[in-house]
Amino acid sequence: MQRQLDPDTDPLRLMVDPDVARDPHGFYALLRDRCPVAHSSGINGEAVFLSRHEDVSWALRHPEVFSSAADAIDIGQEQPLIPLQVDPPAHAKYRRLLDPEFSPKKVAGLEGEARALVNRLIDRFADRGACDFHEEFATPLPSTLFLAISGLPHEDLETFLRWRDNTIRPDVAPGDVEAAARIRAQTGREITEYFTAAIAERRARPDDRLLSRIVHAEVDGQRLSQTELLGICHLLLLGGLDTVTATLDCMVAHLARHPDRRRAIVEDPTHLDAAVEELLRWETPVQVVPRLVRTDVTLHDTTIPAGTHVVLVLGAANTDPAEFPDAETVSFTRDRNRHLAFGGGPHRCLGSHLARFELRIGLEEFHRRIPAYEIPPGTELRYSPGIRQAESLPLVWDPAR
Predict the structure, then answer these.
(1) Which helix (H) or strand (E) holds 312?
(2) Rounded CA separation 366/272 (Å)
(3) Using CB atoms within 10 A as the burial measure, which of 42, 104, 143, 162 is most buried?
(4) CA dist 134 → 43, 83, 253, 263, 369 (Å)
(5) At 43, is the pLDDT very low, low, confident or very high (cuts 50, 70, 90)?
(6) What does DSSP say about strands 37-40 and 47-50: parallel, antiparallel, or unpaired?
(7) Do 48 and 304 contact (CB within 8 A), yes or no?
């Protein structure tokens, strides 16, 4: 049954509490076991949190019930984020346009460029014997590659990163919804202004990069409108700059704390693909995704009325023992790994193939060059809630090894 949990176990803590972000697994288990349909008064109004794999997976596959449209969440955007905030059937036309741009074949063509970039980043600190992995590797790797793919100038990266952080983790007091909304709204206006100019430039002077291809593409025989183009650009900016950074932070922090698992991929890199999938499952950097209920739905004898805001707890679903045998064990030989780190259903992450590619090449080259490292003793890592990105991730190693 639905229950209002006490303040210490309010599911809202997933969204605001750095202690839960640092080590969420106990909290995930509590939600699954005690309250799979958990109610919270929230900081943005009433919301229901779903935490079991079966429920979350079903919700992701049924956008006609659990909608991802623009009214599911407001992050300051001035137009729907496309294709994320457009439900089927209209959603399909945008995926037909964009999926080929992020297909495994297309992504594989970036390998030479990506490996060269990774090694240039490592060259900057390998002989030093120390780095802030978050600042010096996890942030510039996907960001620089995204700019190159898109055809956007590298000198604008700091601006893009500021917009990313203002949107996803605005620097306000916990619970200050109004201040966060003001920052996000201003950021949304700045993003719109920037890409309005960038789109006009690509119309006048096309090139062979992603943004230009989208500007000149046709969907069902028609060019995309300005609103559609801005919605695509806004989503690509956030997706291209944030989630792989957060995932690298989580994965390398985990491997630093578990040397046996780090050694497994150093000694046999063929484990790397499975390791990436298992760490996506266990760490699940994108802990939650929002949805809005379109029609009454009943789960666990609890009716969730139409109009209810719902939070799907991907991290809890990914550690559900009803789906994953030995769910609390991290195993790089797991046979069946239906994790939901990239979501599922029609709205499954557009960039999942690119993300896997960046993670695999980044981890492979980093461990080839720096096979043994650790987090300095006494270091306490801090992660942002909701999307578990480290504030910093100091690593040290013996450069002579």
Answers:
(1) strand 309-313
(2) 12
(3) 143
(4) 29, 29, 10, 21, 17
(5) low
(6) antiparallel
(7) yes
